[in-house]
Design goal:
Helix content is 46%, strand content 15%. The protein is an alpha/beta fold and 389 residues long. It is globular and about 70 Å long.
């Protein structure tokens, strides 16, 4: 992730990574034993070596790899000491999927810089060592709950006043942020925008409270421990500055929540803030939209989240620009209901049409098409020259 955090490279970590990939490859091969022409879907950066390891033993396996995080530019990726090993492993796949076209472009640029290979830009594929790897964008999404005739009516959205009262705060409007406590999510930057919002619009003191659900992540890693401490410290500092005996600007809930629990906040919130510093997609943005069957609420969305390419009716911000985040929050809270409904209706249509089932269907469908193309080429090579003429 291009988020100004310097990675640490240790040979011992790489050795563990290789062993883990080999164990998973062995398990997959065991599972495929006795299956003719199987399909394997490999998920994310944990298993970059698996496609090549599996293909070496079972060339007939059709392998798709989906990469959930952004792929950086060649210069950024080039600092990794094991970049050649990672790329070689990935190029064992027949199909590699990313969230956005920009990540596909970066990947092909990286391969072009690192390897002697043929990049087929017109079809977005890499030909190397007699093997073709297609590279495609597949923006991931969420399940979209449709009302089915005969279903019991959905309960009304919770009252923001009641939700905040249960948290010990007296306020009328609620904002929500839902993230892992991860340095890529821009939570500290978000808090800076909220602080600036109260500086510029002090009449919102006592009226609006922002609830940040920050699920602890990778708590055995020092960098993440420090980040969570920083998030807690900033929330406390801003609260000390503005709070009253019955109100505070930020409620930080640093624990894991189930989807149903989070959805109550999505449905009650006037605004959802997603301020990722770098994100492959960010499904919180789509979850918020999917939850808003009342077609109200406003999404403030980072330009560095992949979702911004699809949800362009959100208020798009640069999370590093504190003034812009504050202004977007104010715009969201003062937007007319008619404008908010038009924006939310269009975003819901996008998420409805491009849901997670369509994502999976496109991924497997494209892989099946590659399988058919490969079979046609193999059949063509076995025909007699006279038949080909």
């Amino acid at each position: 992730h291009i988020a100004h955090t310097r990675p640490v490279f240790r040979a011992s970590d790489w050795a563990h990574y290789e062993r883990a990939n080999q164990r998973f490859a062995d398990a997959a091969l065991q599972e495929m034993r006795g299956t003719e022409a199987p399909i394997l879907l490999v998920q994310d950066y944990h298993f970059a070596l698996v496609p090549r390891l599996v293909k070496a033993k079972r060339p007939d396996v059709q392998v798709a790899m989906f990469w959930h995080i952004p792929w950086p530019n060649p210069e950024a990726f080039g600092i990794c000491p094991w970049q050649s090993d990672l790329l070689d492993g990935l190029l064992g796949a027949d199909l590699i999927g990313f969230h956005t076209q920009a990540h596909c472009n970066n990947f092909l640029d990286t391969v072009d810089r690192a390897f002697e290979s043929h990049i087929e830009w017109e079809r977005f594929a890499v030909r190397r060592g007699g093997h073709l790897t297609a590279v495609r964008p597949f923006p991931i999404s969420v399940a979209f709950r449709e009302a089915v005739p005969g279903d019991p009516p959905r309960p009304p959205a919770p009252s923001p006043v009641d939700l905040l009262k249960a948290l010990g705060v007296s306020a009328y409007r609620l904002g929500i942020g839902v993230d892992r406590a991860d340095y890529t999510k821009g939570i500290v930057e978000r808090f800076a925008g909220i602080e600036r919002f109260f500086e510029r619009w002090p009449d919102e003191v006592g009226q609006f409270t922002f609830v940040q659900i920050a699920a602890p992540s990778r708590t055995d890693i020092k960098r993440y421990q420090e980040l969570l401490a920083s998030i807690e410290s900033e929330a406390a500092r801003i609260n000390r500055r503005f709070q009253t005996p019955v109100w505070k600007p930020i409620v930080l809930i640093a624990k894991h929540h189930g989807h149903d629990e989070i959805e109550r906040y999505y449905r009650a919130a006037a605004v959802c803030l997603v301020t990722s510093l770098h994100d492959g997609m960010n499904l919180v943005a789509k979850e918020f939209v999917a939850a808003r069957d009342d077609e109200t609420g406003v999404l403030v969305l980072s330009q560095f989240a992949g979702a911004s390419g699809e949800l362009d009716d959100a208020l798009i911000v640069n999370p590093y620009d504190t003034e812009q985040v504050a202004e977007a929050l104010h715009q969201a809270l003062t937007m007319s209901e008619a404008d908010a409904r038009v924006r939310m209706r269009r975003m819901r249509q996008t998420v409805r049409e491009h849901n997670v089932f369509r994502w999976a269907g496109r991924l497997i469908g494209d892989l099946a098409a590659i399988r058919l193309e490969s079979a046609d080429r193999a059949a063509d090579r076995t025909r007699r020259p006279a038949e080909r003429t």
